Sequence to fold (229 residues):
Amino acid sequence: ETGVTQSPTHLIKTRGQQVTLRCSSQSGHNTVSWYQQALGQGPQFIFQYYREEENGRGNFPPRFSGLQFPNYSSELNVNALELDDSALYLCASSFKGSGNTIYFGEGSWLTVV
Amino acid sequence: GDSVVQTEGQVLPSEGDSLIVNCSYETTQYPSLFWYVQYPGEGPQLHLKAMKANDKGRNKGFEAMYRKETTSFHLEKDSVQESDSAVYFCALSDPVKTSRDDKIIFGKGTRLHILP
Fold:
């Protein structure tokens, strides 16, 4: 148990649709990162939110966007879904600072058909 | 850019065997190095870490030495158990770059399946 909760756990969407994934961070953590993990691959950094602002972004197109709320929870939004967006989406929370451990949730499995 | 390479996609030792899982990294800076473990249906969790050259990370009988001269961080264990079966990811973060976004770069993972 990491204290990071994600919803929904599984969902199926059609190509072209939009999806919102949600994350509640561990108590006391002020930073949320999102990662995409394709089947058989390692997680890839999408972006990070700190103080309700995007604080860094990986190599993902603008149709991947996010929000962080005053209680440090977060959303990941993906527009115009493509088949290749099918993956496990992981949220990770941490307290801002180099060397601090990040804690992952169990992820949301997205299947795009 | 920064990268992590794990050469084995899967290893199948028998219970009691010794284990080495290879990891090499590429970065222009002085990263922190990690091994994460992922069990079915769960997110990755930190297994061990080493913050600077010649540090050794340890956890549950596993060890990994941060070797700057060979840019490696191999995961080793003297005697594996069935309960060690999982996917192991080698990863790095760059303390200079991550002063902004704490990004972690993962390898593709090595599935460890211990045969009884």
